[in-house]
UniProtKB/TrEMBL annotation:
Cross-referenced InterPro entries: MetI-like, MetI-like_sf, UgpAE/MalFG_permease
KW Transmembrane helix (keyword) present: yes
PANTHER family per record: BLL4140 PROTEIN, DIACETYLCHITOBIOSE UPTAKE SYSTEM PERMEASE PROTEIN DASB
Subcellular location: Cell membrane
Transmembrane annotation, as ranges: 7-30, 71-94, 106-128, 148-176, 202-223, 256-276
Full protein name: Sugar ABC transporter permease
Pfam assignment, any one: BPD_transp_1
Species, as recorded: Winogradskya humida
SUPFAM superfamilies in the cross-refs: MetI-like
Domain ABC transmembrane type-1: 68-275
Family: Belongs to the binding-protein-dependent transport system permease family.
Membrane topology: Multi-pass membrane protein
Keywords: Cell membrane, Membrane, Transmembrane, Transmembrane helix, Transport
Length: 286
């Protein structure tokens, strides 16, 4: 009876996984192996097999690799800050020092309920010197300049996702048996010592999970730069890898866009896998 129940739960997920994940990936790979040719200046367009021609163009595309470097710098700074704030908020909610935990738990999560495009538009208006209600600040600091616009977007992403990551870590904290904390208090440990020596090590898998999600999300950065193009000339059509894919497909050059997508997906996989391997190796050594 148990063996019969397994397909009931596995088949729906498997069908959706194949239809909406594996099939699109396979289609993108196939599309990336073709190229468009035109007979003469105004001749008919035809799609022919090009092999790795599109990938050669990808690896020779300077703006694409510059955009990868840009989001790498974005992730190195933004991800630790966001997860650090999320961890502190989760520890505060779990400490018992904060009254009204239900209210604050909801308040921290509310920004995540706002669509990313709406959040980017809202913050874009706040940053804009001509539109912002904080003109003394935006007049003195140009948050939309070439030097600061990337970090202005990092602030938007942090504001949106810190509550989401906080809930994941907080849920892991709730799963820790209270007897562990009681034993630590009996040994004379204070709140800070319990948080540092017990809580953080026990929720490390949740922190690793949120870090992997954040790495993937960083490389998929699209809504914020797309919206900020309306506010800042410093954001170009190739500012992030996903924006490069979007702009290339709008030309339209679907084959080259597919090649960009495949390379970006492989880069995301390699970085995420490398981070997981590094954390697993460190855990095994300890």
């Amino acid at each position: 009876m148990k063996n019969r129940a397994v397909p009931i739960f596995v088949v729906p997920f498997g069908a959706l996984f194949i239809a909406f994940y594996l099939v699109p990936i396979g289609y993108a790979i196939v599309q990336s192996l073709y190229k468009v040719e035109r007979s003469g200046t105004f001749g008919p367009v035809r799609e022919v097999f090009g092999g790795l021609d599109q990938y050669q163009r990808v690896f020779q595309d300077g703006p694409f690799w510059a955009s990868l470097g840009r989001v790498a710098a974005f992730g190195v700074v933004q991800v630790p800050v966001m997860l650090g704030v999320a961890l502190i908020l989760a520890l505060l909610l779990d400490s018992g020092l904060v009254k009204g935990r239900r209210f604050f738990r909801l308040a921290f999560f509310v920004p995540y309920a706002i669509p990313g495009v709406i959040a980017a538009i809202m913050w874009g208006f706040l940053y804009s010197p001509n539109l912002s209600p904080l003109k003394p600040v935006t007049g003195a600091i140009d948050f939309l300049s070439a030097d600061l616009v990337l970090w202005s977007m990092a602030n938007v992403v942090t504001w949106v996702y810190v509550g989401y990551n906080m809930l994941i870590i907080y849920s892991a904290l709730l799963a820790v048996p209270t007897e562990v904390y009681e034993a630590a208090r009996m040994d004379g440990a204070g709140q800070f010592r319990i948080a540092w020596s017990i809580k953080i090590p026990l929720v490390l898998p949740a922190i690793v999970l949120t870090t992997v999600f954040s790495i993937i999300g960083t490389l998929q950065l699209l809504a914020e730069p797309q919206v900020f193009r309306s506010f800042s000339s410093a954001v170009t059509s190739t500012y992030t890898p996903n924006l490069t894919v979007y702009s290339t497909s709008s030309i339209p050059n679907f084959n080259l866009a597919a090649a960009f997508s495949v390379v970006l997906a492989l880069t995301t996989f390699v970085l995420s896998f490398a981070f997981l391997r590094a954390t697993q190796r460190r855990s095994a050594e300890q």
